[in-house]
Amino acid sequence: MASFINKTLDPIDIQILDMLQRQANISNAELGRRVNLSPPATHARIKRLETEGYIIRQVAILDPQKLGFDLLCYVFISTDIHQAEKLDLLEYNLESMSEVLECHCLAGEFDYLLKVANKNRRELEDFIRKLNKLGISRIQTSLALREIKNSTILPISL
Length: 158
Fold this sequence. Notes:
Strand content: 15-25%
Number of strands: 4
Number of helices: 5
CATH class of the largest domain: Alpha Beta
Shape: elongated
Helix content: 25-40%
Largest sheet: 4 strands, antiparallel
Order of helices and strands: HHHEHEEHE
Strand order of the largest sheet: 2-3-1-4
CATH topology of the largest domain: Alpha-Beta Plaits
């Protein structure tokens, strides 16, 4: 399972990464206890893993519904833009939109897939209007009716 992982990671690094992705607010003392390291040694490993780019950032994951975001949508878009500078501008604009939680460049029928959070139908309509101003040639929107699984945990454990 761990064959894809960079050779600079040892089993303790893997354990630390796995535990942090499951519980980012775990203390260095508790994490160190679980991997048999002192808190300072644990802290040093975490800092190294951050510096080497294994840990991108640590965040709190919020409940969208409790905050009033009742519409989770997946928006597939196509564009007729082919110039690199204009594509860069399009991607910058997509990245800048607060409603866009994720944006992926695709191969296949559509050029991009957006994961979008809106509070209601009106906000979704306004968002689609904003997209239309960016040179989008085709938009297909799918509403998520309910969530079956939502995870940020990569299967890296040994």
